[in-house]
Write a structure and sequence with these properties.
14% strand, alpha+beta
Amino acid sequence: MNDVSCSLWDSSRRSDPPLSSCTEEKTHRVTENDLPLIRRSDFPDQKLPPVDRPKLPKRPTRDFSKVSNRQKRTKLTDLNSQLDEFAKENNIDVNQVLGYVLYQCNYNTKKHLAKLGDELYRTGNIAEAAHSSLDLDHTLALKTHINMSRNDMDFIKSYFRESIHIPNRNVIREHSQMLVPAVEECREGRGITVVKVSDSVSLTIKRLIDQSLKHNIPLSTDLLYRQKTGHDGAGGQSIYRANQNPMTDANIFSKMMGPLSLSDSATGETFWRNQAPNSAFWTRPLALIAEKENFELIRFVNETFEPQEQMLRENGLSFDHNGQTYKVFIVIEDSMKDMKVRMVESGLGGADCLICYTRQTEWKDVKKLNEENAFLITRTAEKTMNLYNEMIEESGEIKKRKNDYETRAGLTSEPLSTSDHHFLTLIHQYINGTT
């Protein structure tokens, strides 16, 4: 033990390998030369018999709808390549190929899918269904034309909520308020009128511009707008005599206007034309007065509106809309009046005709009927006003004499309008052979 410990202690002090002379005798290092040599030829070539291993069960294919989007793309790689190649060879869009496949697979059984496929094949796109949502204009038109209350509108919105989207009540109200001009009271609170006729005309023209652009109709900046105007009274309707009617008078008098057309002022190209100019739904009120039609009421309406209409005829309108400046020439036809109103406005209560100076006896004269220029339109509002100024006395009455038709020409009262009554021209057009 002492020898071994001495040897170990000595070896730790030396840099030589820690092998002492005493341990060298007891250990023997195995080298490669000591191993026996083994050659490959000593073993014959023998193949191991195949081992029958059990086959693992094949993984079932998952349903296409249950795989992830990445796996779906992987599964459709070959099909997409074939579709792209087919579309390229036939010089059509891939969507058109899919559309025809959809049409071919469904034209016998599912007609609606076949229709969609045919549309996709022909156009390469499928238009959005217009009936799936009502915009504000459609909603307001539905509410106005059917005269629906707010509760009716809420019921329709709730009933069709699964198939048609209808805007909310407050949105409809805000949109409708943008389409109404400023109004004010008149006739001691018995009626209301628009503050400016130009506001109503401007709103109408802007609406026509918006609708034209919405339907991809290109517009010029120089436009010609035509409208008709007039007034009339009504008092025979049962609603005015209802017990719960808050009106103190069973009559109502209205001043109205109706748009006729919008066209290019330079070329005459028509962008929009009213297909139902006599429909009540196209009429826009300018004044509503709860009074019976009378002389003083007609005077008030004409004195209020005729100067504004004449200014629009002479100067037109110019405004900015949607970042574009429009200059609009305006034609106003004073044609929405019945014969009763025209008789009062013209002051020709004793005239046989408001348009010419002929008498009833001449209308039955065959020779005169054959004359080309026998029934020309010769009366004008200016001539009638000049005649009134000549015939008026200091008392304010018109000079009347027996058999004075040649001088008085049927004038019975003060003319209330500066407009010519040339829209009652049916007989004159027929006789003169004009249109």
